[in-house]
């Protein structure tokens, strides 16, 4: 089997992604500031460009990994269940934080596009960037945005939040696990949740709850915004 024939197999995309992620984790062991997801993405892109392998060939295997995002997200329910009582006890402040964060994310994104003179299409494309990808893509699609660009912005938002969010929160004096989890889950969805759950199971469980609640709330908030922007 030639290299070109092998790249057409789904196993190629799976193997490339897994190897790139393993290498990214090894790099993070040496340089803590490197985010494995960002490094992995860069390595995959660099390899595809260097070997001139079309994205469509890689996607045949990459789609299998995308499919696994569903079970991985559902698995966040385990720490959520384990910490359900503590979340229930702090439900009011958590809900207040999610509401404030969701509204702020929508308004700040809209304000940035408006100040820079962007179009309505770009506005609805960027506004849902802080919620989890499946919800953000569907909001963008239904509102007349560009789902592909929304996907890029959503991943970048999650990466930036996971890389700098916890440090900035602690720098601002926010050290409580519930507060950190609420902020990260609301603003940086699954990528941020996967980052902080390694530091604290409680923060990760709150972040998972905030991620789901923020997605529902943002979807509801987008209904009047959509009719206003028409």
UniProtKB/TrEMBL annotation:
Keywords from the named record: Membrane, Transmembrane, Transmembrane helix
What residues form the membrane-spanning segments?
A: 6-27, 34-52, 64-81, 90-117, 209-229
Question: What organism is the protein native to?
Answer: Paenibacillus elgii
Primary location recorded for the protein, binned into one broad class? membrane
Tell me if Lyase is a UniProt keyword of this record: no
GO cellular component, alphabetical, reads:
membrane
Q: What is the lineage of its organism?
A: Bacteria, Bacillati, Bacillota, Bacilli, Bacillales
Q: What InterPro entries would the database entry show?
A: CidB/LrgB (IPR007300)
* Membrane-protein topology: Multi-pass membrane protein
Pfam short name (any one)? LrgB
The protein here is known as LrgB family protein
Entry's localization field: Membrane
